[in-house]
Write a structure and sequence with these properties.
Blueprint (H helix, E strand, L loop, with lengths): L25 E12 L5 E12 L4 E12 L11 E7 L6 E10 L1
Parallel strand pairs: 3-5
Antiparallel strand pairs: 1-2, 1-4, 2-3, 4-5
Length: 105
């Protein structure tokens, strides 16, 4: 349903913004990251780490970015979980991604 070989979760939910059980369609970019906060209602903050090259010194540095994503009740990601998020339509001022898979703790 979502594509990219992602299977729907075993739990069911009645969230209209769920890509599996609601009407939300996903598209565009896909990221993996770690949930650093789950204090919001049906939303999580995800931190992604990447390596940035510094040509002058011929070295790499580690950089991080934070994104907000919708967290459907059927997935229910918690702090410390590694998750996969996909882009969707704008859900609020800061949310335009949705959690589609929990990869582990």
């Amino acid at each position: 349903m979502v594509g990219m070989g992602i299977k729907p979760p075993k739990e069911r939910c009645s969230d209209p913004k769920c890509p599996f059980h609601g009407t939300l369609s996903v598209r565009g970019r896909t990221f993996e990251g770690v949930v650093v906060s789950d204090k919001m209602s049906r939303a999580v903050t995800i931190e992604m780490e990447r390596m940035q090259v510094i040509p002058k010194y011929e070295r790499y540095e580690r950089r991080t970015s934070k994104l907000h994503a919708h967290n459907p009740p059927c997935i229910a990601a918690r702090t410390g979980d590694r998750v996969k998020i996909m882009e969707c339509r704008r859900l609020s001022k800061t949310k335009s991604f949705v959690v589609v898979q929990k990869l582990g703790a």
